[in-house]
Structures are given as structure tokens and as C-alpha cells.
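=== RUN LOG ===
request id: a7f3
mode: sequence -> structure
chains: 1
length: 251
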Amino acid sequence: MYPFIIFLLLFPSLFNSQPTSSILPPAPAPAPTTHDPTQFNLTRLLSTAGCTAFAQSLANSTAQKAFNDVVQGGLTVFCPSDVVWDNFSSKFKNLTLPAKTSLLEFHAVPIYMPLPVLKSNNGVTNTLATDGADKFDFTVQNDGQDVTILTSVVTAKVGGTGFDEAPLAIFLVDSVLEPDELFTVHAVAPASAKVKSRSDMGSSPPSAESPDYSPADHDGDGDGNSAVRVDGGEFYLAAVVLTTWMGFLPL
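=== RESULT ===
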């Protein structure tokens, strides 16, 4: 008993104090870091991925609005590196404004396709430039770990991932994607055919040195053209003989 009394006298605060603290609830876990789709800065993200030249061309074009309008619902961009785009710049400068817009939009697909989805996708794919009769589509082809994008003009290889966070994926490509609608020869073919037709109509017979020359077509038993040439030769010979004879006549 006495030890307890002595303990009480020495430490009275242990029995008179009231608890002043309580158990606090655990702190909520931090939310995962994600981009607000409305805050995507495509120019900055493309430049960070190594496509600064392409990003600047996009920023100076009305095509940028098409990119921004669909990014919240999903967007996959295939961007050429700066070296690739710079090598293509002379062609790009010669395009009309609508063609430039279509070319830029041709480098994007209006759905989110991370790399596993892209690797499992084989076949024709529409792009932002697809509009009714204007197909502006390309073919995705997979061979093992390699992913290529095909048009009738170019074959581009997907070289790496520049950005991948839903709903946006950016992939680097080693060639500018050239759509058939802008770079095939179908538009100039009729004109070329007309030129060839006029050339054929006005062309002269091939010479003996020409690979198209055929002796069978130019012998004395040939067509009317051969006969005309023979007659012309006889006329020329008669004229020479007559001139020589007249030269011996006394004046």
C-alpha cells in the first residue's frame, strides 16, 4: 500500500490529466497522375517526342483544330522526326493549303491505339483526313515486333513511342505518310497519254540505229511509204543525169 501512495504523490499528473488526442483517420492515397484531356498541348508533346518541325507545321495549319476536337475521345498521331520532315519540306511547300491540311490530318487516327493495340491491328485504317469519297486511308501491317504503315506511295516504319497516356498516343515514323489522293500519278496520266498520242501521230520512221528499226518494214516490197521513197530516189537520179548532160551542151 505504501509504495502506491508514494508513487501517487510523486506522479499525480498521471491520474488527473485528460486525454487530449484522438486517433486520426488514415490520409487518403494520392490520386494517380493523369493528364486532363482538355489540357493536352499537342505542340509541346509532339516537340518533346522529337517532332518539332511537324508540330510547328501543325500549329500553323487549320488541321490543328481537327486534332484538338477529337483528342478527348481518343487520338493516335504518327509524327515524322525533324530530319524526315525537313527532307520533305520542299514537297510540302508546293502543296495547296487544302492539301497541306489533308496531309497533316493523314498522320492521325481518331481513336486511341496504344502499342499493343497497334501491333494487333492489321488492315485498312481511316484517318482524320477521311471524308466520304476522299478515302485518305492507309494500311497497318505487322510483322513480328515491326509495325509498318503502307500507302501505294510510301512504306513507313513505326520506330518508337513518343507519348502514350490515354486518350493520346504519339508514335515516331521514319517517313512522311504520303496519301494516294495527293501523290499518285493518276491525275497526270490522261495528260501524258495525250502527249504520247500526238507524238506517235507526228513521229518519223525510226532510223537504222534505232532499237525499233526493222529491215522487214523498210524493204522494197514494203508498203506504200517504201514505194514513195524508191520513186523519190529514181527521180533524184534522173535529175542528176539531166543536169550533167546539159552541162556538156555547147553554148
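=== NOTES ===
Residues 224-247 form the longest helix (24 residues).
Residues 187-205, 207-245 have pLDDT under 50 and may be disordered.
=== END ===
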